[in-house]
Amino acid sequence: MPLLDHLIELRKRLIYALVGFFLVFFVTFYFAKPIFSFLIQPALADGYKVVVLDIFEFFFVTVKLSGFVALIVGFPLIAVQIWMFVAPGLYRHEKRAFVPFLVATPFMFYAGCLVMYYIVLPYVINFMLTVYAPPDIEKTLRSSDYLERILQLVFAFGFAFEVPVLLTLLVQVGIVSTEGLRSKRRYAIVVAFIIAAVLTPPDVVSQLALAIPLLIFYELSILIGRVIERKREAADKKTEAEELAAEEAEKKAEEERAAEEARKAEEEKKAEEEKKARDAAIDAPKDPAS
Question: Could you read off the pLDDT of 93-110 as tens digits, one per residue?
Answer without folding.
Answer: 667 777 777 888 888 888
